[in-house]
Amino acid sequence: MITFTDQIHQAAAPFWQKSFEHPFIHELQAGTLPKDVFRYYLIQDRYYLSEFGKLHELIAEQVDDAHGKQFLLDGAQGLKDGEIAVREGFFEQLGITPDEVASTPIAPTAYNYVNHMYAELYRGTPQQAIAGLLPCYWLYNQIGQHLVAQGSPVKLYQRWIETYDSDDYTDSVDQMIALTNRSADQADAALKGKMKTAFVRSSAYELAFWQMALDQQKWQVTA
Ligand SMILES: Cc1ncc(CN)c(N)n1
User: Fold this and answer.
1) Which of 38, 91, 99, 175 is deepest in the core (most CB within 10 A)?
2) According to its UniProt record, in which pathway does this protein act (predicted)?
């Protein structure tokens, strides 16, 4: 049987394919990704992950499903203890200080992505917000699984890959997929359509995030 998440995954497939093929990912695996690009990505992603954690807590307040609520609260804590904690080690290695993070403005794409997820919750519903969170979990897991066999010759990049291929991470992805499917079970056709749009837009923002890092995007007037 085709699940709801299979359907929305299919709808977002062109964005996912472009992410798998993106030069940021190729260069990370080949070990040729410039360190300043990776530094930039990590700083922007620090903003992203901290808002992503807050969103878990805010969505949990609005979710009736007790199991889902607990998963979201655990997910917020898991982000701090897991992904964000791993990144602290990366920051140390690359000499990224709290001052540098605090003084670097969030870039347009990261800002828009985060705002999109808040809009799904505050101008939409918790079900839409859940669907909007899912690409973040699932896409990185698929990228980790694609890249891990070959790996990267750069230790830091290899650790990044392994984070997203780990059993713990994969388990959280499976639970998030299950929560999205349970949320869709309670939704009518119109709400399912909005959940799909939230998922596809987050997938588009995931793709844009790699390019943002390669361009080291800034707020500026463009021609
Ligand atoms: C933008 C983004 N998307 C997804 C992930 C993986 N949690 C991340 N760290 N950053």
Assistant:
1) 38
2) Cofactor biosynthesis; thiamine diphosphate biosynthesis
Closest-CA residue to 164 (of 181, 178, 151, 154): 151
Whole-angstrom distance, CA of residue 42 vs CA of residue 101? 9
Distance between Cα 198 and ligand 1 center (Å): 16
Residue 39 lies in a domain: yes
CATH number of the domain residue 69 falls in: 1.20.910.10
- 223 pLDDT exceeds 80? no
Q: From atom 8 of ligand 1, which residue's Cα is the shortest distance away?
A: 136
Report the distance separating Cα 124 and Cα 107, nearest Å.
24
Q: What is the pLDDT of residues 47-60, one digit of tens each?
A: 999 999 999 999 99
> Is 172 within the bounds of a domain?
yes
141 Cα to the center of ligand 1, angstroms: 10
153: buried, middle or exposed (CB in 10 Å: 19+, 13-18, 0-12)? exposed
Full residue range of the structural domain in which residue 83 is found: 17-215
pLDDT digits (tens, 9 = 90+) for 96-112: 999 999 999 999 999 99
Residue whose structure tokens are 């870039």: 107
How many domains is the chain built from? Answer: 1
Which residue's alpha carbon is at the smallest distance from atom 10 of ligand 1?
Answer: 45
- To the query of whether residue 83 is one of the catalytic residues in this protein, the response is no
pLDDT at 54: 96
- 184 within domain boundaries: yes
Question: 9-22 burial, b if ≥16 CB within 10 A, otherwise e?
Answer: beebeebbebbeeb
Instruction: Confirm if 132 and 114 have CB atoms less than 8 A apart.
Output: no
Which ipTM score applies to this complex?
Answer: 0.99
